[in-house]
Amino acid sequence: MHIHILGICGTFMGGVAALAREAGHRVTGCDAGVYPPMSDQLRALGIDLIEGFGADQLALAPDMFVVGNVVSRARLPDGSPKFPLMEAILDAGKPYTSGPQWLAEHVLQGRHVLAVAGTHGKTTTTSMLAWVLEQGGKAPGFLVGGVPLDFGVSARLGDGPAFVIEADEYDTAFFDKRSKFVHYRPRTAVLNNLEFDHADIFDDLAAIERQFHHLVRTVPGTGRLVVNATEESLQRVLAQGCWSELARFGDGGPATEWQARGTHDAFDVLHQGEVVGRVEWELSGLHNQMNALAAIAAADHVGVPPADAARALGRFRNVRRRMELRGTVEGNGGAITVYDDFAHHPTAIRTTLDGLREKLDDAGKQSERILAAFEPRSNTMKLGVMAAQLPWSLESADLSFCHTAGLDWDAAAALAPMGARAQVAGAIEPLVQQVVAAARPGDHIVCMSNGGFGGVHEKLLDALRAAHG
Fold first, then answer.
1. What's the topology of domain 110-313?
2. What does the pLDDT read at residue 379?
3. Which of 183, 236, 302, 436 has its CA 20 to 30 A from that of 209?
4. Helical pair 456-468 and 428-438, crossing angle rounded to 10 deg
5. Where along the chain do its domains lie?
6. In contact, 35 and 452? CB cutoff 8 Å
7. Is residue 386 pLDDT above 80, yes or no?
């Protein structure tokens, strides 16, 4: 089968492309705004990429067009279609489907699907779970919205019955407004956390809770729901009906089956009050401890003993763009370190920075500063509905630098409560100049965006070497 994927460089659709290629299909695709790591991964797989959505691609005559949710029926100011290829597909009556639907029919059917849902931590927890199953001898398939360092690819078919998938609540396609995860029919479902997000498609938190309950409805009675016991929103989801085994994790009181005891980088795993494993790793933060509990409880459902899962997590190397070290610049008096992180929601920004602050404090490096460089790039952040939460999210940063290009709201006003601790810049180059002027030996610079951030990481490292090297 030849499939042509519209929006192929998105993390999810790129994973679909990789799975289809591994299954022996011919895969081509198109997108705009191509950037690594997905573009590099696709080219390495021998998948031909076409820039843009031109109608001439209809001549490729694939057996199926697989449409990503980046595609819409939108029109440009001059009245022409933003996605001419989609208009041509519709006019010609050619076959098309969504990425989640294609995946459900061609990859997930007959597998034991372990789906990881939540506002935050989906990619990391999915990667943890896939790694634990791999180390447990399960040879799982997986699709992750990032590139796990332990595997080097975002997706593979696997040899065993288990398939681990990052279960996104974002909509499926312009012609299917259900959340992606409704298509996956999991036997094991992780509900990691739930906050308001995706303000471009959801009116409020209750609307997202309804979608999460649609997922709950698809889990069989012999399945397992692994649920964060500390999240009130998830308790409201369960109150709408629960028909499966329930495994709760976190510090949710005596009824919580899975808990942790210790520091965030070295802790015992407790199941029903008894120690069943211990995790010692390089990761930081309460959020990663919670992710670990979720992965261990989910892996237990497919026969990986908690002690084995905990040991496997001690060897887990995280995911690209999750506090990924991009480089250090040695200067007179110490090194300046630059990290790349995917955080874009205020809560994710806060947990990322809090985790680094905790790690520095535990290492006796309380005097070392954190500089946060970020861009509010997600659809929700672009709308400005969470702008007031930014000062709260940046509390652990000593200085913050916001890239404001493309925003219709006043970032400087939103960050005004931070005073001199926050600066804004309308382009990458002045932002780099601001950061370099403020940086000093011993600083940790965390660049946060769900996009390429204009290559800010290398530009910062080059400028820092010139200034401090």
1. UDP-N-acetylmuramoyl-L-alanine:D-glutamate ligase (3.40.1190)
2. 66
3. 302
4. 40
5. 2-98, 110-313, 324-468
6. yes
7. no
